[in-house]
Write a structure and sequence with these properties.
The chain has helices at residues 28-38, 52-65, 81-89, 116-123, 177-180, 191-199, 218-233; strands spanning 22-23, 26-27, 43-48, 70-75, 99-102, 107-109, 131-137, 150-153, 156-159, 167-175, 203-207, 211-213. The strands form 5 sheets. It has a 4-stranded mixed sheet. Strands 1-2 form a two-stranded antiparallel ribbon. Strands 3-4 form a two-stranded parallel sheet. It has 234 residues and is an alpha+beta fold. It is built from 7 helices and 12 strands. It has a single domain (7-233), classed as Spore Coat Polysaccharide Biosynthesis Protein SpsA, Chain A (Alpha-Beta Complex).
Length: 234
């Protein structure tokens, strides 16, 4: 998901999509693609609207770097937000097969003993879930801002409106294409789909054992890069 204006990251995003901002020397989108390639993903769809030209150039470059993967840019003629953007991109998905849906600004580091996407796919059960969220314990987020928007109980996720939950949504999830088919191509947040799925007791939640950073404003980006730089020097 790389279409938004990311106004909280301005001026860095005045002429650049937020997912192309660099963390640890690479665009955030490249880190996500590397995670996906490591799980043998062979089709990656990126949606775009704001600052399309640099995103088009990036997609051409990344396609050359990974010729074994099919890269598709789902261009929006109007900003559809995460919900409408996902519905538009559904035309490129394989019916009846679960897919990873990842916010373009998600930055995480795998746990030493497992991959984050691998853990999410292992916990996926089609008979149990329509959407499965990767959630980060707020207690584990010592650096960037933690917002307790979810709790987990018996493998199911519950959203807390008052933000008093123990977990924060990472922007990483597994979803079934048929979930998207129930909605129109129009501007709305994917959060509506998550809430609708929760109301049917089909929204799952997995505790993320690795590190995840909530990069929302320029100072977050600076702080994460500073920490990662110090780790490399240590």
């Amino acid at each position: 998901m790389a279409a938004g204006y990311a106004t909280r990251m301005r001026p860095l995003t005045d002429n650049l999509p937020k997912p192309l901002l660099k963390v640890d020397g690479q665009p955030m989108l490249t880190h996500i693609i590397n995670h996906l390639i490591a799980e043998d993903v062979t089709k990656i769809i990126v949606n775009g609207y704001h600052a399309l030209e640099p995103l088009r150039n990036y997609m051409e470059d990344i396609a050359r770097a990974y010729p074994q993967c099919d890269f598709i840019l789902s261009e929006e003629t109007e900003l559809l937000e995460t919900g409408g953007g996902a519905v538009l991109a559904n035309q490129y998905l394989t019916p009846d097969e679960p897919f990873y849906m990842i916010n373009g600004d998600a930055y995480w580091i795998n746990h030493i003993k497992e991959t984050s996407l691998g853990e999410l796919s292992q916990k996926w059960t089609a008979s149990k879930y329509d959407i499965l969220l990767l959630l980060q314990s707020c207690a584990s987020m010592a650096m960037t801002e933690a917002i307790g928007d979810y709790d987990i109980k018996d493998g199911f996720a519950t959203r807390l409106i008052n933000k008093s939950g123990e977990y924060m949504f990472t922007g990483v999830r597994v979803c079934m294409p048929y979930v998207l088919e129930k909605y129109n191509i129009e501007k709305f947040s994917f959060l509506k789909m998550m809430d609708d799925t929760e109301s049917k007791n089909r929204l799952g939640g997995v505790n993320h054992n690795g590190e995840w950073y909530h990069i929302s404003i320029p100072s977050d980006l600076d702080e994460v890069n500073d920490v990662l730089c110090k780790v490399k020097r240590a």
